[in-house]
Design goal:
The chain starts with a strand and ends with a helix. With 317 residues, it is α/β, with parallel strands linked by helices. It is globular and about 55 Å long. β9 and β10 form a beta hairpin. Helices cover 36% and strands 22% of the residues. It is built from 10 helices and 13 strands. The chain has 2 domains: 132 residues, Nucleotidyltransferase, domain 5 (2-Layer Sandwich), CATH 3.30.420; 170 residues, ATPase, nucleotide binding domain (Nucleotidyltransferase, domain 5), CATH 3.30.420.
Amino acid sequence: MEYAIGCDIGGSFVKIGLLSREGDILSSQTIPLPEVGSAEELAEWISRVLLKIYKKERENKLMGAGIGIPGPLRYPEGILYDPPNLPFKGKVPIKKMVQEYLPFPVFFDNDTTVQTLGEAWKGLGAGLKNFLCIALGTGIGGGIVIDSKIYRGTDGMAGEIGHMTVFYNGRKCLCGSRGCLETYASINGIVNSLREFDPPLPEEIEYALKTLQWDRLPKILKERIASGETQWQQVWDIFADALGAGIGSLINLFNPQRVIISGGLSYYNRLYIKRTIIQSKKHCFKQPARSCKIVVSNLKERAGIIGAALLVFHNRK
């Protein structure tokens, strides 16, 4: 049997799956992204993980591995440029670095671009000519489909929706700019909002902030709101207002049929989605708003590994 490895690298976790040519997920796992201090350490770690899977599956024919990784990335060369949510900067030939360790071909693309490919193949983007994908996690990624094709831009780096400006003199972003959508409507954004709260914060929130266990914060906030501590809904309202403003601008710009919300924070959509939709309509023209549905992915975090595997099948026909 021919198969591909799909690997989706997030800001905190890595999702990996084995997929058939038909897009069926044969197996999958989620593992924490370890602390790495350099691109070399990340490349070596990714390679070890992929080789371990390869050695287990030698009776089948591995076509290659597709990898989605956060940050501006030139496709198909697989060169990262100053990724804001990874612990290194500069021009990084990540594809070349990983390929040196592996006996099979590897293909890199932006993480949300591969999630968008997954949505177009097996998700809520299937059959649509024009749609956007917004992945909400540690940061925010974006994917753009125009006339049934991924739009990549001049350098193959289009779709950095998280770094569109929603407040021109707003919060400082890890990318060096200010007021990026990511500084309000992501885990990084939740951290920013909590730090603006009047002290003292509850002990478990303080602990998560100080120990950098930021991925725990959405669940903590959800549980506290459910228990009656409604003041924490303010964090999600800030999140929703910024996300709605961003989506409204995107609707005006691209006139899509659908905007698909995915990523780890899509699991918490009941805390922000209604307000987001209302806010989006305040920031765009009425007709394109009527033509566009804002929906939550039914693939959830599987979209990334599906799309990453599709990279392999597209490049190895």
